[in-house]
Amino acid sequence: MTPAPGPLFLDGSPAAHEALRAAVAEVLAVLAATDDRGPFPSAGAARLRETATAIEPLPDDAEPLGEVLADVGRTVLAHGARVTDPWCAAHLHPPTLVTAAAAELAIAATNQSMDSYDQAPMATYVEDRLIGRLNQLIGLPATGSGVLTSGGTASNLLGLLLARDHAAGGANLSGLPAGAGRWRILASAGAHVSVRQAAAVLGLGRDAVVAVTTDDDGRMDVAALDRTLGQLTQTGAVPIAVVGTAGTTDTGAVDPLAALADRAAAVGAWFHVDAAVGSALVLSDRLRPLVAGLERADSITADLHKLWWQPIGASALLVRDAAALRSVREPADYLNRTDDDVLNLVDRSLDTSRRFDALKILVSLRATGRRRLAGLVEHLVDLAAKAGEAVRRHPDLELLAPPQTVTVLFRCRPDGVDEDRLDGLNVDVQRRLLASGRAVVGRTRYRGRVALKLTFTNPLTNHDDVAALLAAVAAEASAGLEEAAEEAHAAPTATRGRRSRRVVGRDRKPNGAREASLHGPID
């Protein structure tokens, strides 16, 4: 049945405001109805793909919003990762502040476009003010500037574009100079993959990034950096940028930023710091020393959708000197004219149309306050440290690197299991936990071996949650070994099935209980 016509747009009328209020209420009802699910759906990728394929995104005629939302609740929202669950701990993927989520409505409803002043008058100066406050918090000088981006990958790209243009002496007008083939970017072996991606996009090639060895803590080894710089000089290569990382993806390590700043200055290279994670440490007086030297960077990536608990996407590229951003500017007669006497943020950005994400950041930071945010960050850093100790004490687990920020890297290593079987065992543990929907545990490789990873970004997680999760990981490994032993001893013609695994560490209904039917009614 085609619904009765109603307001399609927010035109300022009472009817439009009431329509928005009713729509929001329906969305909230669906969210509440699907918020008792587990950390991950157990239906499996094939089933989810099949269900998504059955959705008609663009029917010829309108459907009642209530029916659409009820269907979306059953088929979509009920089968997403639940980032507020303490056992959803694989990635730098946090829950969001309620105040930030609420402010998203105002961003969507007002739809300011952050490229030009005449599309976002007050919003333009609000973002500029926010960038200035972040620079001040980090310790950058008053000459600093910056812009919000969609994420850390975009921020790293922009930061390294500035490094490239700094090496070239200005904006890229007619292609890279003849000597650009000798340019090199130095980053630790644990740096984010976006550094190599950026080098490719910027025309330097992925191989222009030189991976510097890390120490036992996962930090860039300064002695190795010195050796690498010496070798580059001998071969005629030119280091144009040194990239430090404040909170690597796999180990959470923070490079020795002050030492890296010294080396970059000595060779005239741009110093970029990927502080997508570590930028939040400056909120805390206690944790700030962990990122000493950050304030010396020429450019900084700060992801506010990580340990600042903003909805994705909310990142910032902060720069020491606003003049560096001039190479980004590309004037257009219709948009950011050369005779404009106002701020057009497109002059700092690789994006044209862009959301007013500064609003949700402004609202939620003011409504939470620095001290409370600092306490949340401190809780998670402390939680990771204690989780590392729990891993050390567990007879069947092995800590692979000391926690420095919010990441714990470890693996299952039960007694009597040969080294050559451990990789397969850990892969199996991660996959089985995910497939069952019980836990989202990270998996990577560290020093050539398969590793498991817990990343703590959820301030609701406590020590009991972590202890139970580690117990479940160890129990899954034990169950897998038992099953493998049974299968090895079973006769080829045996017809017995695999023994079922029990849920360990949680007194709650299995996640699959809500997923008996992807099309069933919302409870």
Automatic annotation (TrEMBL):
Pfam family, one: Pyridoxal_deC
Gene Ontology, cellular component aspect: cytoplasm
GO annotation (BP), single: carboxylic acid metabolic process
Modified residues (N6-(pyridoxal phosphate)lysine): 306
Region (Disordered): 481-523
Keyword vocabulary terms for this entry: Aminotransferase, Decarboxylase, Lyase, Pyridoxal phosphate, Transferase
Entry GO MF terms: aromatic-L-amino-acid decarboxylase activity; pyridoxal phosphate binding; transaminase activity
Essential cofactor(s): pyridoxal 5'-phosphate
Entry superkingdom: Bacteria
Transferase keyword on record: yes
Family according to the record: Belongs to the group II decarboxylase family.
Protein name: Aspartate aminotransferase family protein
Species the sequence originates in: Jiangella aurantiaca
